[in-house]
Amino acid sequence: MTSVVDDSPDIATPGAIEQATRGSLERERLNQKINKTKRAKSKNRLTKDELKQEIDMDEHVVSLEELLDRLHTSVENGLSATQAEENLLRDGPNALTPAKVTPWWVKFGLQLFGGFAGLLWVGAILCFVGYGLDQSTQENLYLGVVLVLVVVITAVFSYYQDAKSAAVMEGFKKMVPRHALVVRNGQKMQVDATEIVLGDIVFVKGGDKIPADIRLIEVKGFKVDNSSLTGESEPQSRSTEMTHENPLETRNLAFYSTSATEGSAVGVCVGTGDRTVIGRIAGLASTTTNSETPIKREISHFIHIISAVAIILGIVFFIFGLFFYDIITNLVFMIGIIVANVPEGLLATVTVALTLTAKRMARKNVLVKNLESVETLGSTSTICSDKTGTLTQNRMTVAHVYYDGEIHTTDSGVTVADFDPNSVAFRALQRCGTLCNNSEFLPPEDDEEEKLDWKQRKATSDASEQAMVKFTQPIRDILEFRAANPRLAELPFNSTNKFHLTIHVQEDESDPRLLLLFKGAPERIVDRCSTWLTHGQEKPFDDQARAQFMTAYNTLGAKGERVLGFAQLYLPADQYKRDFEFNMDEPNFPMDNLMFVGLMALIDPPRPAVPDAVATCRTAGIKVIMVTGDHPITAHAIAKQVNIIHDPTAKEMADEQGIDESQIPAGDAKAIVIHGSTQLKDMTDEELDEVLLYEQIVFARTSPQQKLKIVEGCQRAGAIVAVTGDGVNDSPALKKADIGVAMGITGSDVSKEAADMILLDDNFASIVKGVKEGRLIFDNLKKSIAYTLSSNIPEITPFLLFIVIQIPPPLSTLLILCIDLGTDMIPAISLAYEEPESDIMLRPPRNAATDKLVNARLISFSYLQIGVIQALGGMYTYFVVMGNQGFPPNELPNSAENFLEEDQLVVFDGRIWNYDDRRDALRRAQTAYFISIVVVQWADLLICKTRILSLFQQGLKNKVMIFGMFSEVALAILVAYTPGLADALGTNGPAVYEWFCAVPFSLLIFFYDEMRKLYMRHNPNSWVYKNTFY
């Protein structure tokens, strides 16, 4: 064998063999690495029960030496390349596992076969079976084909609408951190963010997204935006010290995908991918199941009712028909009755109605991801709302100023300004807020932005400094102010000093003194003050003045506002001239004996429309609960401002009475504020259920797991729950809620993915508009169904009379299709455009257990009241038209068999009739019957406009309905008189006067219903109301 190998021209040299072997091994090693990484990722994924537990970690608590030892790393050298590779193989890549995406064909299949479409498929199959049993007529075949077309077209339409929303969702997605700077083998290097592993030493700076969970080792003025994680609206300072056992509260951790707003930091990676804090939350969201939408449950309930009615009628008349016909003929009749009960046009009507409402909601800044979610919002009985950016503007604003010993309000959108801009003390406060400040307005990106109010313009620096310049800019242009008072030196704010200091040349050339300005934590500022500016005079900052200050400070703090103190000092002109070299590391200038100027209190103010929106919710019987990660004091203050809380809590009642909170009797307090970390964390389900009985509730400092727990508690109590949120921390609750509502502007990708709807303007008031639309669509769907079902009885009656008394069929299957998919379609859809009745936001949310979309009262109204009158009108018209043509009504019973035989001559009223004449007469009578249904459906449409109000109260403002009524008549004329089409449909136009046969029945329907509604309005507890109000 050796000689064969050596002599073969295809075998390379030993060196080439070795190189090929190495290449093969390298490829095999690479494949193994990829597979191991995937397996590691899967193996390290947490279970749902683990994800629902509170975050338990000690990486922020243990000493840095112990942590570095645990992770086998060092600050100077980081990990070795080998260690990094092993950790990557062990833990998997630093990326969140993508949510499972439902394939397009599954989505389309659900639209094609799910819900009401399934009932139509059953109807189509029965039609094909009927055609197979009796092929003497092709009507069943035509009907089956039409039903299939209706289902397919409607499914394509619904899928297209949902796909458009999905396309908008794709547009929301943002780039995740792509690269990161780490230390490996003692060298700084840039790596792909997905390759960061436990133990990596990571560098971050302002503007970066944090690439992993890191324990901070070194910080320089480092702040992070945790709003998507904790709900805190302001950037949070970070340090190397552990400040809280709760990892979400401590300052020595920075979390994956949050943003660094300023400064820089170095940290050691303590969490990657699905095992980061955000990864756990995203994982909890992905393992949380969606609730079935109320409208889906209602449609299922409707299908059961219609199916039961159809099957019972079919079986009853099958048994009855056995006395007259053979089994095959009876089976065909039974199938005909069952199919006649299926409202073929209703699927399209419901789909179009939901789509129209979704489009209306989109115009009101509510994007609907799933059409069925449209109605769910209307069923909502509890809204669990996030605070930051939803109830509030997500924009820090100066809400109050304190000067001259008094608190004054500003124009914050909720309060009206009452400060005096000409006060000496206020001008000094304004000067401090403008000059001791690094924020500047960014150039407008377009003409629209240039027209915006200063409060809405974008600016640099942190939220507090932005708030101050947005407050002072309208008073005096900040750039002009700063140019007139040039800055000579600055000592930036830091977490140790807690103040910001600047030194300026004064614009008053007659005063050569340099001006030193202070801004910072009020207690730090006041400690350095010996005088204060009051009513234009400098006076000693004595005990009385300090007491006034403390009262103001505590008052503003109790409002949940962030308070900043301001002070100034004129430096002696002989010692400190313009060219003096100020040393900021070791200050060579005075920093004590300052003059206290005043306070500015900042808050993220409520959106102006929110208080009225919350009041509307209360009137509509909807409980609004605030669920936020922010501080309880801030949350309580905002809850009061937006009307979520308007009564005192037990603590406030106890403080007012000077007693302990435990002495307040249970049930006396209607409002409660629950702290997530100290109270909710250890609550049992039973204790939480008791808390949820309060009328006014705020949950503060809540974790994602607790938000999910709150939603589950509300659902246990039978509530239909809507949840709003913008952060990753909100996503599990958004997914679990009956309807999740994410924020379009500030919302994270994870929250938008978990939600059913997206508020494009991030405004809570838009939810209330959505609730109104949701209630309206439920009302209007009821009206559409009541209208559509009414024509079922005049459609079924001809079948029954044909079987029972054997008269020639008053209506053909093709004309039934012309009603269901022709004349009834536009009027039924027009009800989706109907304006709400006046009480729509005054009544409580519907009870999902008792207030069904289709209930026994609606079936009774449509079938046994209006439907019966319509059938009487149709049969009267049929007999009149047949009589007019020489077929007396008394001779029609028991004549069907001979009447329909082509080779029979039949005697009626003493005259011999051939088949062609009989056929033409019957077609004219059937067409007149069809037209009579159009006539009575006019009245039916008018009475279905309202459920309790009179038509004269509601008016005829619905232009689409008026168009629908005339389109109904136009279609009837088209069907009856168009050459060619009349032959295809088997119609023969009746005389004009025969159109009016059903008018008395139409008037009867209208006046009967007006009297019924009048009686119900005056007797809401009557038998009529309880048994006919649907």
How does the SSE layout of this entry go?
Blueprint: H1 2-7, H2 14-43, H3 48-51, H4 64-71, H5 81-91, H6 104-113, H7 116-133, H8 139-172, E1 179-184, E2 187-192, E3 201-205, E4 213-225, H9 227-230, E5 236-237, E6 253-254, E7 259-271, H10 277-287, H11 294-321, H12 327-340, H13 346-363, E8 366-368, H14 373-379, E9 382-385, E10 397-403, E11 406-409, H15 424-435, H16 447-450, H17 463-472, H18 478-484, E12 487-491, E13 499-505, E14 514-520, H19 522-527, E15 529-534, E16 537-540, H20 543-558, E17 562-571, E18 594-603, H21 610-619, E19 623-627, H22 632-641, H23 650-657, E20 671-675, H24 685-691, E21 696-700, H25 704-716, E22 721-725, H26 731-736, E23 739-743, H27 749-754, E24 757-759, H28 764-790, H29 792-804, H30 813-823, H31 825-830, H32 856-884, H33 896-899, E25 906-908, E26 911-913, H34 915-943, H35 951-954, H36 959-977, H37 981-985, H38 999-1018, H39 1023-1028
Parallel strand pairs: 9-19, 9-22, 15-18, 19-21, 20-21, 22-23, 23-24
Antiparallel strand pairs: 1-2, 1-3, 3-7, 4-5, 4-6, 4-7, 8-24, 10-11, 10-18, 12-13, 13-14, 14-17, 15-16, 17-18, 25-26
Helix pairs in contact: 2-5, 6-8, 7-8, 7-12, 8-13, 11-12, 12-29, 13-28, 14-28, 28-32, 29-32, 30-34, 32-34, 32-38, 34-36, 34-38
